[in-house]
Amino acid sequence: MTSVPTAVHDEQHEQAQAAPPITMFGPDFPYAYDDFLAHPAGLGSVPAAALGTEVAVIGGGLSGIVAAYELMKMGLKPVVYEADRIGGRLRTVGFEGCDENLTAEMGAMRFPPSSTAFWHYVDLVGLETRPFPNPLAPGTPSTVVDLKGETHYATCVDELPEVYHQVMHAWNACLEEGADFSDMQLALRMRDIPRIREIWSRLVERLDNQTFYGFLCDSPSFRSFRHREIFGQVGFGTGGWDTDFPNSILEILRVVYTGADDDHHGIVGGSQQLPLRLWEREPDKTVHWACGTSLKSLHGGAPRPAVTRLHRTAGNRITVTDATGDIRTYAAAVFTAQSWMLLSKIACDESLFPIDHWTAIERTHYMESSKLFVPVDRPFWLDKAVDDMGNQTGRDVMSMTLTDRMTRGTYLLDDGPDRPAVICLSYTWCDDSLKWLPLSAGERMEVMLKSLGEIYPNVDIRRHIIGNPVTVSWENEPYFMGAFKANLPGHYRYQRRLFTHFMQDGLPEDKRGIFLAGDDISWTAGWAEGAVQTALNAVWGVMHHLGGGTDPANPGPGDLYDEIAPVALDED
Known about the structure:
The protein is of the alpha+beta class and 572 residues long.
């Protein structure tokens, strides 16, 4: 259910209307990455003596490719290592035997306008987007909510039964009463850093130990268990959020404050095009490198293989061993793969990071996630249903579906009438994802079709399927072991250590030179924006480490750090 935020106070309305749109600008680190990227002065420079210096970039997902692209533009030589494929969890796949334009998004598939640094790169490489059909979104023809065997059809929120409106109002009141929602939204829109920090500092201190579910239970607006249960199964924006109930409420507040669950768009042709196009792009302006240089050309067409060992060598250099046994030593390195790889797949010296950072890496909590897609002959769900007498009801025969059955969320993705289309039969997280883990793609599909058959008894989905299903369980992917980070209560201090790791002047000299990045290092894990922001932090860190700096007209995240550093909680 799309949340309808409580309106800001009347005297603030005009200010809010004139302010820039919400971005993932804060609240933990209110730095304007979109302004940093757009500034004509660029992201900074390194001394002439450092030009051409090799920098290892471990992981070819969005964070790694953005970091490598910007380091290349700066005149450095990124050396990208990738164990699987460029893109990471921006993974777009096709269906065997079907049109190559028919694709499924196994990872990231929908992006909010508040991801302004992410959209900078989407625009840079010229990708086309379209609204994503979330439940009850304006571009979604219809939505069905099926709970406890009761099915409700709606084309907008107003058409849902009264109990859903009660739940929506309870959520809005809960945010306003317990988390200063309107005040924070206005501060973010106005980019009022002192006000953002004032509100957030108070909330972090009060709520770091609170779960999402506990936050709901503490609200007078959510005293009803029935309302909490419905909210967990239907949620806001993208659907049910009960799988997040054990997580820190701070994680959820970051999502709602920044509009991360609103007005999503998907990328036509698939999100993996973004890192692939950056890999191949020849920037208009580069330092040191000849015109026409790209990441692809610097690498001879392909990245280096998987990293198997990381250790420090003389001069505080970072030495990388890859799967072929090749050993290379670098003045600096950026690690963008999921941080658990440092505990399992890669043999690491403990000297790579301070012990507190190792503790934070070990405590990282990843959520499971599964999807299954099938290709179909056309968007048959837009056909109109008929009743038992053969009369048209005016309703679509099938809709975007939220349910408490095994499928949980079913999304309908089309490219126009009478063209082949795709159904995401099921998108699930955490325990709901683990239920699918032992089953093959075919077995999963059979269970899903049975569940959907209970909701749509007169719809023969199977007869429209034109190819084999494709599926993923991210917890079972060897280079991921989970979909994305989600902090548990009490994890704020760990996340702060990871996010601020790019600020290394305060570290011992023998702990500098390797920089953590990736969405699990960010405050907005699970969103591509976090991958981009931490990549830019790492770029600033490498530049600073090699003796470079930013233009005074365009200070970077490290230059303004003292003004906007995340709240530091007492550790005693």
